[in-house]
Amino acid sequence: MDIKKLQAVVVDALEDVKGQDIVMFDTTHLTSLFDRIAVVSGTSNRQTKALAASVRDKVKENGGEVVGLEGEDTGEWVLVDLGDMIVHIMQPAIRQYYRLEEIWGEKPVKLGAAKRKSTAEGKEAAAPKAKSKHLAASKEEPEAKPVNERKPAARKTAATKTTAAKKPAAPKVAVGKTVKVAPSKTAQAEVKAKRAAKAVSAEAEPAKKVIRRVKKAAE
């Protein structure tokens, strides 16, 4: 198995079981025994064993070889030998004590970039190639609409304009004009009665004055 594919498979296997602080280093300049070394933490004996089993199974499923598996009895430090790669699965206290990163960590490998590259290569191999540029261009061109589909829209617009033209205009309402109303017969009679009473009182006023003078003279 290619080393890049192997490291991608190992990282996926460790992430499936929630491995913590996964790191990987290129060791080709330090030893000829293996090309990569991976270090990961497990919070308990059960998790370290599960991480080792996940790496073993994933590598075998993808056609890789598992040379050996050590440390499963205690679960504090489990080592998985994959030939070109050694995976160290350690509990946090053991990892902090031995500090393998200081021994092998001169050339760290970026795990995200390696996984993306491996995935991209697989997609390119699976994707079918276009038969010709002419066919590819013809597929991208938008489909032309037939002329018959456009005529009903024009007729509909003309019919709408004709209907709008035939609508009668709203009647105008005059604002601000005062309408005079003729007085009723009862009101006219009351006015006449008041005028007659005023006339009578005006005519009787001189007679009243004469009577007053006669009374004063008699006294």
Q: In brief, what are we looking at here?
A:
The protein is built from eight helices and five strands.
Topology:
Elements (H helix, E strand, L loop, with lengths): L2 H14 L3 E7 L9 E6 L3 H17 L6 E3 L6 E5 L3 E6 L1 H7 L1 H5 L6 H16 L6 H8 L10 H16 L18 H34 L1
Parallel strand pairs: 2-5
Antiparallel strand pairs: 1-2, 3-4, 4-5
Can you walk through the features of this model?
The protein is of the alpha+beta class and 219 residues long. It has 2 domains: 124 residues, Beta Polymerase, domain 2, CATH 3.30.460.10; 37 residues. It has 8 helices and 5 strands; from the N terminus they run αββαβββαααααα. Strands 1-2-5-4-3 form a 5-stranded mixed beta sheet. Helix 1 runs antiparallel to helix 2 and helix 1 packs across helix 5. The longest helix is centred in the last third of the chain and has 34 residues. The protein is rod-shaped. 17% of the residues are buried. About 8% of the residues have low confidence. Interacts with ribosomal protein uL14 (rplN).
Which structural class matches the secondary elements?
A: alpha+beta
Number of helices: 8
Domain count: 2
Q: Over all CA atoms, what is the radius of gyration? A: 55 Å
CATH architecture of the largest domain: 2-Layer Sandwich
> CATH topology of the largest domain, what is it called?
Beta Polymerase, domain 2
Tertiary shape: rod-shaped
Order of strands, main sheet, comes to 1-2-5-4-3
Average pLDDT, all residues: 75
Question: Unreliable segments (pLDDT under 50, ≥5 consecutive)?
Answer: 125-142
| Beta-strand content | 5-15%
> What is the CA-CA span between the terminal residues?
159 Å
CATH superfamily of the largest domain: Beta Polymerase, domain 2
Helix content, binned percent: 40-55%
**Biggest sheet record:** 5 strands, mixed
Give the SSE string.
HEEHEEEHHHHHH
How many beta-strand elements?
5
Q: Give the oligomeric state.
A: single chain
Level-1 CATH class name of the largest domain: Alpha Beta
Subcellular location: Cytoplasm
Organism: Massilia solisilvae
Pfam families: RsfS (PF02410)
Keywords: Cytoplasm, Repressor, Translation regulation
